[in-house]
Amino acid sequence: MRVITKRFLITFLSLVLGLTVAACGNDTSEVTTPNDSVIPEISNPDEIFISTDDYDVTYEDLYEEVKKNDGLNQLLLMVDTVLLSEYIPLVTQDQVDDKVKELTYGTDDDEEIAAFTEEEQQEAEDAFNNSLYLLGYSDNAAGYVTTMIAREMYAEEQITDESNSEETWYVDAERVRDYYESYYFEDINSIIIRFNSESDAKNVLRDLNLVAKNGDLLLYIGETPLENVPSSRLDETNTRSLTNDELLNYYLVMYNIVYSGYKDVIDEDITYAEATALDVFTYTREDLVNVNSMMANFLFSSLGSYTEFVAETDDTPFYTYQPLKYALSSNNYYYMLLNLDRQIKADVEDFEGDKAALETLIGADVYSEIVDKLIESSMSSSTFANNRMVELRAENDFVIYDYFMSLDYTLASTDYEGDEFGHETIVASFGEEEITADELLTFCLNINAPIYTIYAAQTKAVIASHFEDLYCNETSECFFDVDENTSELMATHRSDALAAKEEFESGYYAAYYEYEEYLYLAYGVKSNNQLLSDYYVKSTLRPYYIFDEIIKNDYESLDVIMELMQGYIDKYFSFDVNHILIYVDRDEDGSPDDFNQFYDELEDTTEFDQKLADLETAIRLYLEDDENTLESFGEDYQKAERDDLVWGEFIGYGFYVKVEDLGETTFKTADGSYEEGFVDGLSVLKTEYEKPENEDEAYLLSPELVKTSYGMHLIKVEKGSAYEMPNGQFAMTYDVETGDPLYLEDLVNLTEDLTLEQVMIYAQYRFIEIASDSEAVEEIYGIEEIDMPASLLKTFTEFLSELYDAYYVVGYLNAITGQELLEGNFQNSISAYCNLSETAFNTRIQNIIDIYMEQIFIVYDVRDSE
């Protein structure tokens, strides 16, 4: 699960609105626009919203942060709410519920959601609810999605609006006719028999005395067994043609041979009409395209049908006389196909009528179905609805007067040209409406003031922490203005900024953007001074600001990762892993079916369980022979025929196997890469290997089959190169000449468990690496460069490094800044901008802190839940 950061907020809204907006800092001094246009301002920029001992957050800071984060999206929300005023009341609660469901689970299909585990559902719900909270809509999910739905309703309506008849996406009778002619097909009735290999298919055909000869399927009637007769000796003396009834009978016999192990047996004496009526032989085109599009095209467009053949309306062969190969996933399967019946479409090639005439010709239901498909196709594009909204705004003379917000909008509308002059107070106008900077700020703060405040305070808080230590220690006078600061570090930043400008001027983007525009789009800043302060200075000081929090109260914050670290220690293993996957593919798409869903849908699991147990027993018995391996099993099973005495019954039951060598695998590499059930299976094997009776075994097999959504796994492990777990034990070593200790005394540890003192030293060691300035670290914190024993560094790398580095993400920075704000002075001196009370503001800030802290570390919590 990702930490929801400032950039996530931008991305999340961008996905919703189809826009990309930049995130910048707070310093608005010396900001100019390439065309010298006026930038709209709020009425009370210098009034204080909240203050701390080190800095104030003004309404100007908040306004700039609003614009730099999601201000454009919020502005468009204000505009679209007016433009879509006729659509918004039409949004139903069911639509809202479906949209919320889709955003939560990635689908609004209840069956798909039901297939999620309880844990997966809970994780999806928590992630969505946390996202809503950080967006300011925790108590108003309907408010969040209603305008989104209204936009989609408007876009859908445009698809059939005659005013758009020149557009490629416009849908009318002509477009429906074209789709009907090229892509629409009624259901087809076919017998489709899939064989696991060419030899599998040929063996079945041979056992039935069926041979392919001269484009026909013939019955061998000779006395010599067919397997002993070369194909060159097959002729009219020992073969004969099949009648149509015999052909159907043999196809049904083949079908039962292949599928009777797990599907209902079909009466082999039924007629074509009776076979056509069976659901098991009825397919939609979509069903078959999902299996293999080439096979679908062959069945629908190339192969004839029995119905047409006997009616003499089409003499195209209606069955395959030999197995056809189609690739699914990485496997080749072979098919025998027979088309029973297919509906003949209406001839629309020369149709030139209107909607009513076409409905009469193809049917009103079919017409409506095609319209829905075409609308769905357009709406599936991530940009379609947003493009229609761009057009609607343009029709209503939408203008943005803020140069940089206008630049953002060009990412959604490449044809948009911003206002040349700007405005002192008006941000945007459309129709007869105007939106002022004050109104935009008020709208945004009343939605999400706490998150904007955290973002607005971030740069101030970071710079206030150690600016003097790093940028003022070389001169008698400290200049906080980056323009006047003469420190060596600032000179380095200026050199880096100059190099960035030179790179821009010699690069691709210089032909399309002014440098100020490039700064805004690439770095999220509006001036060179902002580049220095909000990008270079902030990036340099951020680790120090975070480290201050880590070491506060005698490294109290390390308690969190000490607890989480224990989970990795408890679950540690290192194995060379191979496994056999036993799976089913009942939809025959070439990939394992979702095993959990498949198993849950079995009316009676008794037979399946017994077959699976028998297969497991047979595999284990096979592997008892030292000459046999997992790989040889996979090969033998794949080559086995359906009458094989060992594997035949399992092949006939529809069990497939796959053998994989996963190489050396540790808990860390497995966790997150493989399903939880598989990782748990490896953990069980770790426990098995720790038993005295198993410690010298060359390999172990999982005592039971391990279940995942792919199927059932028999896992084989051998001890990996890192089987012996790294630990915290360390005895001091000394310089052979001076006798001085080579390492810090607090690293000494007679036990295997890492101590807090060792972890504290690692925190210092790693911070020096992150800060990249050991002299500054020593001067500020009194921490000298640290030599780390290789054995302990290996332990820290395995169990601690990722956990510790998680502190240095933006989410933790947000949490620290939020904590500072809780200790600040909430003034909200212009309450007209924000309707939150201090209590409500602080409650929201604390909840945001909790969300960030949870999301930072939740991915690292591998401890077993109690």
Throw out a few tags for this protein.
four-stranded antiparallel beta sheet; alpha+beta; flat; disordered N terminus; 18 strands; 866 residues; five-stranded antiparallel beta sheet
* Proportion in helices: 40-55%
Question: In whole angstroms, how far apart are the ends?
Answer: 21 Å
* Helix count, DSSP H or I runs of 4 or more residues: 35
Rg on CA atoms, Å: 35 Å
The counted number of beta strands is 18
Strand content: 5-15%
Q: What's the shape?
A: flat
Class by helix and strand content? alpha+beta
Largest sheet: 5 strands, antiparallel
Mean pLDDT: 93
Which spans of ≥5 residues are poorly predicted at pLDDT below 50? 1-29
Polypeptide structure, described:
By secondary structure, the protein is of the alpha+beta class. Helices cover 50% and strands 11% of the residues. The chain is built from 35 helices and 18 strands. Strands 13, 14, 15, 16 and 17 form a five-stranded antiparallel sheet that branches. A hairpin with a 4-residue loop joins β1 and β2 (56-58). α34 runs antiparallel to α35 (838-857).
